[in-house]
Every structure is written in structure tokens, then in C-alpha cells.
Amino acid sequence: MQRRLCRKKAGHRSWAAKGQLAPGAHRGDIMSPAKRSALMSRICGKNTGPEKALVAKLAALGLSFETHPSDLAGRPDILFRAERVAVFVDGDFWHGWRFPLWKHKLSQSWQDKIAANRARDNTNFRRLRRAGWRVVRIWEHQIEQALPACVQRILAAIPR
Asked: pLDDT tens across 101-126, in order?
């Protein structure tokens, strides 16, 4: 039996028509600062579920790669050093997938945090490209919905 990665997503994924703003507005935090801090401290930035699923598929194909190398801009999640391919697995919330459509639902501090993450992602992308790397960015929901297609995107980026 294969474990499913899909789960009910937070409100940032609940909009109506494509390209339309998500309904609602920021309503303030429902948790105390202490409880919010405890919750946020449990969130890890690497070896996430989608990342583990992708790594497992790539390893099953017999590919040789590194994970989270500290010597490159942005610390790619998966790195094919000899082929000069860097893969980033981005969480939909933390990296702001379709951010302009749901940012109005966040407090200003969260808007600033996610906007800074997106700016840093763009900077790291440009730095790697200028250094001659191919960069593949895969979103969390893409892995959950079509893992084989994500693997094919990576394989297509690796020169033969």
C-alpha cells in the first residue's frame, strides 16, 4: 500500500476561479504568541514530505545526487553537481505560489516575510544561472498531484 501525500490544504489554496483573488481578508491571529511560537518552531525547512517523495523516486532510478549542499546560493534541495543541475522543492505557502491572489488574507508581517522569500528565491535563481547552472523549481502541489511528471522535468534538465 502506497502512502498518499495529499492532505487538506490551508486557506491559501482555496480560491474560486483561476486568476481571481481569494475570498476573505486578514482576521488576526487566533493563537497566543506563545502557542504560535511553539507551532512555528516545529516547521522544518528541509527533508519535507514532498522533498522526500521526490528524492526517493530519483534514488530508485539510480541517479547520483546531493541534498542541501551549503556551497551554492539558496542551498538547492537536490543537486546534480557533475551535470550542473540544481532542484528546488518549494512549499506553496512559504515561497508564495500565486501569492498576489491571497496575500491580502495575511497580516503585513506575513506579507513581508513571504515577499522577502520570493525575492531571495529570484536572487538565488539568477546567481545560479549566471554561474552556469540549470535550475529546476518544483512546487509542493506539483509533487503531490503529479510526481512522475516532476521526475521527468528533472530528467529533461540533466544533459545526456
From this structure: 888 888 888 899 999 999 999 999 99
Fold of 44-49+59-146: Endonuclease; Chain A (3.40.960)
Q: How far apart are CA 30 and CA 48, in angstroms?
A: 26
pLDDT one-digit tens code per residue, 22-56: 676 656 666 676 775 665 555 666 778 889 999 99
Residue linked to cell 502506497: 2
Sketch the domain layout of the chain as residue ranges. Answer: 44-49+59-146
How many alpha carbons lie under 13 Å from residue 7 in its C-beta half-sphere?
Answer: 6
Query: Which residues are 66's β-sheet partners?
Result: 79
| CA distance readout (Å), 34 to 28, 44, 47, 63 | 15, 18, 26, 44
